[in-house]
Amino acid sequence: MNKQDLIKSLATTLISQYGDDAETVAMLRAAENAADLNNEEWMKWEKVIMEIHIMNKSPNLDG
Questions:
Q1: What share of the chain is helix, strand, coil (3-state, %, to 5)?
Q2: Do 1 and 9 meet the contact criterion of CB atoms below 8 Å apart?
């Protein structure tokens, strides 16, 4: 799985599990990694936050 597919998969999973709170959960994970100075994971979760935001603005209506 490439990085972009991973980001989309994480975002989709968080939205499925947490609904409107998905972005908040992703923010918490990003903050945890930032506090640990784990830049790679921090940036991954920042991208997940952006993907969740995009998905929420333009929801896929395919089902």
A1: 85, 0, 15
A2: yes
